[in-house]
Amino acid sequence: MKILALAGDGIGPEIMDEALRVLGALDLAVTVDQALVGGAAYAATGHPLPPETLAKARSADAILFGAVGDPRYDAVARHLRPEQAILGLRAELGLFANLRPAKMFAGLEDASALRPQVASAIDLLIVRELNGDVYFGEKGRRETSAGERQGYDVMAYSETEVRRIAHVAFRAAQGRRGVLCSVDKANVLETSQLWRDVVIEVSADYPDVTLSHMYVDNAAMQLVRQPGQFDVIVTGNLFGDILSDQASMCVGSIGLLASASLGEGAYGLYEPIHGSAPDIARQGRANPMAMILSLAMLLHHSGGDEASAARIEAAVARALAMGARGGDLGGTMTTQQIGDAVLAVLEQDAMA
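The structure corresponding to this sequence follows.
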């Protein structure tokens, strides 16, 4: 298996180092290549997603992605900003389905922003559409008839885009508890009404899955009121981006949530849902757990190695239960020390 590691900016290189150490400890038949992306690539080549990086991405079996974003480049043209690298990879590689699991780890209930008895019930999966919505719609600035500046971003979805993400979500629900909640804003947005109509049509193919619908503002409220009610949530690009970040604080820290961006086949891009956190970069303060869990998702979805993925997930859970916490969870451990804790559990597991 060929893996391309794109560390990126900010804390990306630090957390990537820990994930690659975990991968090395598994002694699998994989090769790892690396390339520049984001602000680091722009500084070196003048573009956040250079042709060389894209070519390596196309030839790999999967991508392990750190984070992009650097305030030093906030003033450059929008299409050259570091964040355009991840949008470009998703579009160029046909990655339209983003899977973002959120589960409460035993012993971390006190780290949640919710009451422990509410947080303990969290075990959900957010399926976010990646290639449509306002992120990819027409955008720009114009002047009104009154001479006032106006910015605009077009929210749009095609029937095909909604149908294919709906199938992903229904299949995911079949492998879990069989309950799917589609989140939209159909009472206001025509885009959301189309979304709801198509999801209902697709539901006919999955009689074993219970489908419900919820407006996004209510869904945000329900995530903090009673998150245990959710099994799988399917929603659009913008709403999914917001709700998955909210879910991260429900389980204690954004540093714990991994994600997979998938296309039609086994190819995928795997990354923590957090950003590059330049304010703590190169200080050893970043939590690498989400990056390590992203590696587990890579081995599961693209590698078909469920055993190794399960070993990583179990090692993370045990390390957390044993007190492996960084500053984001109220602890004092460094990035490398957290990685050491996961590796120690893996070593114990191998000797058992």
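The chain has a mean pLDDT of 96.
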